Please model this.
Amino acid sequence: MKKEYDFSRGERGKFFRQDAIFRLPVYLNEEVLIFVEQIAEKRHRDVSDVVNDLLLSDMRLADSMK
Model:
């Protein structure tokens, strides 16, 4: 890495997009990942879809307990 960089010809905001969506990575522990992968395989669905379904179910359950 250089000690100094020349940004004199840089353009501020060149890659900024107001409508960009930033998705945070989620890391599951091994036991949870295996469980979710098994469900996804049985249902022929993507792991992220199964995780979203499980979380939505938990959200509904939590709302009903209020």
In short: The longest helix spans residues 47-64.
